[in-house]
Amino acid sequence: MANNLSRRNDWLTDPVFGDMGRRFFDGFLPTQNPIGDRVLKTDIKDTDKAYIAKVDVPGIDKKDIQLNYQDNVLSISVKKDDFTDHEDEEGNLLMSERNYGRMSRSYRIPNVDEGAITAAYDAGVLTVTLPKLTGKPESTHQIDIN
Predict the structure, then answer these.
(1) What PROSITE patterns does UniProt report for this protein, alphabetically (predicted)?
(2) How far apart are CA 71 and CA 106, in angstroms?
């Protein structure tokens, strides 16, 4: 019986119907926000000398990314403004799927030399290099993006 019940719901995950099911339920889920259900997808590598974080932020301008390292926590915030080009002269909108809004994520990364943190942004990928600490940590350090 349980096997039959699970089969009945398989259509929601089927590639043909999955998008339709997701779109149907999108408006009813209270956790949805204007930027969509995306999160800042991240890879963090631990090397002998540094932690290297790579964060996917496609479609975000460098000026709309903020980085901060405080109390052993790397915080990343991004924003995407609403689009002004998706309506024609009469205000007609046929379809709107592009996301906008704010996202942020924090990562606990201890023992970092705050003064030596660097960041670069290229082709929608933010790379933050956090050299490991060899002395006493500072309390707060603003990070500039190259």
Answers:
(1) SHSP
(2) 11
